[in-house]
TrEMBL record:
One of its GO terms (cellular component) is cytoplasm. The active site is a redox-active disulfide bond. The lineage of its organism: Bacteria, Pseudomonadati, Thermodesulfobacteriota, Desulfuromonadia, Geobacterales. This is Dihydrolipoyl dehydrogenase. Pfam families: Pyr_redox_2, Pyr_redox_dim. It comes from Geobacter soli. It is found in: Cytoplasm. It comes from the Bacteria. FAD binds at residues 52, 115, 144-146, 309. The active site is at 437 (proton acceptor).
Amino acid sequence: MQTFDVVVIGGGPGGMTAGMMLKQAGKSVAIIQENHDSFGGVCLNRGCMPTKSMLKAAKVYRDAQNSEKYGLDLSVNPVDLTRLRAVADADLNMLRHMVQGKLTDARIAVFRGKGSFRSEHEIEICQADGSSEQIRGEKIIIATGSVPAELPCAPFDGHSILSSDQILKNTELPHKLLIIGGGAIGCEFATLYNTFGSRVTLVEAMDSLLPREDREAGKTLQSTFEQQGIAVKTGAAIKSISVEAGTVHVHYDGSSATEEFDKVLVGIGRTANIAGLNLDAAGVATEQGAVKVNEMMQTTVPHIYALGDVIGGMTLAHAAEKEGYLLAQNLIQGSRHPLDHRAVPRVVFCHPEVAAVGTHEARAGIKAFTMPQAPNGRAVVDKVAPAFVKLFIEEDTSQIAGAIIIGEGATEMIHEMAVAVENRLTLEQIGKAVHAHPTHSKNVLLAVQHFN
């Protein structure tokens, strides 16, 4: 049986980052990756990258449709999802090649198959043909990611009722699409399919979109979506869903009416991918369906760690990547640096974009300020709505505790606020920085100045 200093189960952004850093530090490292997937995890294969490729296409299509306001006369043809998918696949293949090259250069031992615990140090790797092998790790990192959450009343069938994984393979533009879940997944796909011509209904059980964020921002996004033609139903719960002759029939709680759709996307979030890990054999505890860890990403077994989506929480690729970096750093240096979750940006690549960091609500000691949406020079020439900017400030110190931005380039603009939250910068300190003109980021400066 081969023995390694570190065995990583899962080749996503978190597992790969930790594995490569530990290998560079002189550790012997093995990464186990399931056969059906390439390295890069959910983000590269079924999440961040394919959706962003298609959302870029949606932006180009939307700009072409609205070319008249820029003094241009462009015509567009109906969208061919097969062609879009082919372009996205080409993008992904290039990225997969790059990721594989990094692993090859790092000379990490790679094992293909399904990894599961035999004991607290031994991992069994099972192949699709039934064969298996065992390896041993002095330390083990669980980084197996997440899978789409399913509604009990609407199990995925891959054709009419789809997960976010499955809809990425869709090549038929539905006439009517229902999206269940008003979080990041639902909002991004609502933008995508509405732009391409589907009649989209977006349903969220809570009272505003992006229910984990500021309510005012959620309502602002809802209003914008509705202006774009997306039907938004908040505070609405699904009672039952049935499929008859290829048509999906949807019943809502508190209503006798039935709505019909061609397809339904269930985008209510993701759950930790722990099925088949046989955690009990290692004595690793779980909590609320995810691997239980302390702030140093240590499980209930001291030499076994877990990071990324599999521990629940933020389920963001960049959070997992940072956790992988910090875990490797701590193991190499013997340090104890936890991830400051306050400073992790939360982004949604819908239209308009949404980005937030830090606290998302006013409370004792923290006051909030919403910048009036006054056009600046860049918004005027780009012909887009001015950015919505809301700041959350510690009353005693004027330190920036959080922010949320809605608008063009919000996912880039948020990093200034992330630096402020991470380093506990004040309004005055941000206000001293010169912001280039004309930029959308000047709205952040204006918000800071108005707050003062």
